[in-house]
Amino acid sequence: MGCVGIRVVDVTITELTRLFVYPSARGQGGGAHLLRAAEIAAQRLGSTRMRLDTRHDLVEPRRLYAKHGYREIEAPAQRLYADHWFEKRLAVSRQV
């Protein structure tokens, strides 16, 4: 009960653009499932890194990203509503 979006930045980087879980479905693992689905899609597109940005007030999402292997990085670009940037290295997909 939510949605996730990605965008290909270049041949190795995919950006997580959205991850939303409806309030009534939060705390049940849905965010983790959506995050993993986005990572799998990125791998199938050939990406080896997933990046995302978020705001300082979104504490729970930042905790979710850290729990799933995302590490804070320097901002690769300036965005009006982005305070934190994260990145995770993805395994190379063997699917064609």
Automatic annotation (TrEMBL):
Pfam families linked: Acetyltransf_1
InterPro entries found in the cross-reference section: Acyl_CoA_acyltransferase (IPR016181), Bact_Acetyltransf (IPR050832), GNAT_dom (IPR000182)
Keywords recorded for this protein, A-Z: Acyltransferase, Transferase
Gene3D superfamilies in the cross-refs: 3.40.630.30
One Gene Ontology MF term: acyltransferase activity, transferring groups other than amino-acyl groups
Positions of the N-acetyltransferase domain: 1-92
Keyword flag Acyltransferase: yes
UniProt name for this protein: GNAT superfamily N-acetyltransferase
Organism listed in the record: Amycolatopsis endophytica
